[in-house]
UniProtKB/TrEMBL annotation:
<feature type="domain" description="N-acetyltransferase">
    <location>
        <begin position="1"/>
        <end position="150"/>
    </location>
</feature>
<keyword id="KW-0808">Transferase</keyword>
<dbReference type="Pfam" id="PF00583">
    <property type="entry name" value="Acetyltransf_1"/>
</dbReference>
<dbReference type="InterPro" id="IPR000182">
    <property type="entry name" value="GNAT_dom"/>
</dbReference>
<dbReference type="InterPro" id="IPR050276">
    <property type="entry name" value="MshD_Acetyltransferase"/>
</dbReference>
<dbReference type="GO" id="GO:0008999">
    <property type="term" value="F:protein-N-terminal-alanine acetyltransferase activity"/>
</dbReference>
<protein>
    <submittedName>
        <fullName>Acetyltransferase</fullName>
        <ecNumber>2.3.1.-</ecNumber>
        <ecNumber>2.3.1.267</ecNumber>
    </submittedName>
</protein>
<dbReference type="InterPro" id="IPR016181">
    <property type="entry name" value="Acyl_CoA_acyltransferase"/>
</dbReference>
<dbReference type="InterPro" id="IPR006464">
    <property type="entry name" value="AcTrfase_RimI/Ard1"/>
</dbReference>
<keyword id="KW-0012">Acyltransferase</keyword>
Length: 158
């Protein structure tokens, strides 16, 4: 498995996978991916296995450098490759970026996505709220989760 930064050439594949995984929740278009991938405040990564892109993930780094906050925008893995550690590669990259800036990380996750929640909990995230009807047009609820900044965490936990 190889983690790499996404390029504009990856946007069509990302939009295709988005359609497959999130058909009832306003999947992002090619143009939305292009905008996110090139935005100065975001970091977008892909994972390749045997030269094939099998997942993508993005995080924004917001606020001033001395008080930054991170927000995971999306994580998606081809169903054929789920459960093989692809999400862990993304989370390792995101937590390294956030910890280097002593930034907390926020995210939203569907309340019925137990595998994702288990992954996030393993990285020290805690549920801090519920957003009713967050995903549109399905109306599915989301948990808001937070991983505190490094300086606020017990150093024995991730």
């Amino acid at each position: 498995m190889k983690l790499r930064e996404l390029t504009l050439a990856d946007a069509p594949w990302c939009a295709e996978l988005e359609q497959l995984l999130f058909p009832g929740d306003s999947p992002w278009s090619v143009e939305e991916f292009q905008s996110e991938i090139t935005h100065v405040l975001t970091k977008y990564f892909g994972v390749e296995i045997s030269g094939r892109l099998v997942g993508y993930a993005g995080m924004a780094v917001l606020g001033p450098p001395d008080d930054a906050e991170c927000e995971i925008r999306t994580i998606a893995v081809d169903p054929t490759y789920q459960g093989r550690g692809v999400g862990k590669l993304f989370m390792d990259a995101f937590t390294r970026i956030a910890d280097a800036q002593d930034a907390p990380i926020f995210l939203e996750v569907r309340t019925d996505n137990e595998p994702a929640m288990a992954l996030y909990h393993s990285y020290g995230f805690a549920t801090i709220g519920v957003r009713k009807g967050y995903y549109m047009p399905s109306g599915a609820d989301a948990y808001t989760m937070l991983r505190p900044r490094l300086s606020e965490r017990d150093r024995t936990n991730p």
